[in-house]
């Protein structure tokens, strides 16, 4: 069959297009496989870390066997304010020595009823962002840890101690703080607890709301009572429909608060904050 020069050119162009499409298909397939492998590895790492934290939680109260009988430590006497409010501190016989053998940066444990938050709290001595992308066992990656920055002391005596945690898709770390967007959950779970070697701190939750991602401590000098009071007044004036505020809780510049901070899905420049005021000063 006789083929003109023009026909040969068109056939060559079609062949070139077919080759290009095949190359693109191969490249796309390779990229897809690589992406799936990366996602698979991330999922596996997150699952292993979740299992690690679950084991840590299960064993947190396990004490090493003693060769001699030792008297049980006396239970911490609840302050009068807790008694008057009928607050019973959930018992957690946390073995901080064992936790600190795992990681010496552990200094507290936080438990937030109404959520999945039941984790150790860490603070890295030199790198404030370290636990944003490192796990308690030192491995790099998600879900990271619940942590504070070195700008905060570890005895919760600052006007505002900020604890950070990722908003993980599997509901771990601080993701379930978003449960407090539900007014019923907010109303039914008014307290959270921070355990240390020396004391259990009881906080009454007075606010849960979305806020911009500014650094709270660097942007508000809360050591100044006037600035602190103004900051608190602004919180109680929030009128966002998604916010939950306890207007009947008294908080002033003489108090100490803790802010729990996590991300908001799809809103890069926003954070979800849950704030509590210390009751047993």
Automatic annotation (TrEMBL):
InterPro entries: Sortase (IPR005754), Sortase_dom-sf (IPR023365), SrtB (IPR009835). Keywords: Hydrolase, Membrane, Transmembrane, Transmembrane helix. The active site is at 166 (proton donor/acceptor), 263 (acyl-thioester intermediate). It comes from the Bacteria. Its EC number is 3.4.22.71. The keyword Aminoacyl-tRNA synthetase does not apply. The chain crosses the membrane at residues 20-41. Gene3D superfamilies: Sortase (2.40.260.10). GO terms for molecular function: hydrolase activity. This is SrtB family sortase.
């Amino acid at each position: 069959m006789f083929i003109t020069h023009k026909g040969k050119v068109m056939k060559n162009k079609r062949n070139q297009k077919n080759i290009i499409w095949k190359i693109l298909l191969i490249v796309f397939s390779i990229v897809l496989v690589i992406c799936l492998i990366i996602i698979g590895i991330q999922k596996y790492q997150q699952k292993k870390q979740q299992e690690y934290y679950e084991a840590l939680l299960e064993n947190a109260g396990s004490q090493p066997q003693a060769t001699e009988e030792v008297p049980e430590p006396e239970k911490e006497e609840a302050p009068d304010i807790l008694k008057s409010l009928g607050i019973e501190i959930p018992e957690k016989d946390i073995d901080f020595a064992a936790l600190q053998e795992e990681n010496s940066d552990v200094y507290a444990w936080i438990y937030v009823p109404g959520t999945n938050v039941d984790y150790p709290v860490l603070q890295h001595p030199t790198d404030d962002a370290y636990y944003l992308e490192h796990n308690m066992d030192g491995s790099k990656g998600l879900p990271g840890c619940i942590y504070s920055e070195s700008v905060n002391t570890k005895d919760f005596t600052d006007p505002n101690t900020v604890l950070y945690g990722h908003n993980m898709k599997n509901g771990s770390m601080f993701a379930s703080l978003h449960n407090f967007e539900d007014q019923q959950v907010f109303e039914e779970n008014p307290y959270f607890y921070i355990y240390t070697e020396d004391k259990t701190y009881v906080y009454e939750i007075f606010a849960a709301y979305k806020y911009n991602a500014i650094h709270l401590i660097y942007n508000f000098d809360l050591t100044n009572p006037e600035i602190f009071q103004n900051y608190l007044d602004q919180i109680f004036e929030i009128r966002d429909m998604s916010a939950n505020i306890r207007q009947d809780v008294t908080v002033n510049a003489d108090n100490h608060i803790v802010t729990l901070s996590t991300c908001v899905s799809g809103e890069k420049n926003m954070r979800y904050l849950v704030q509590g005021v210390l009751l047993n000063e």
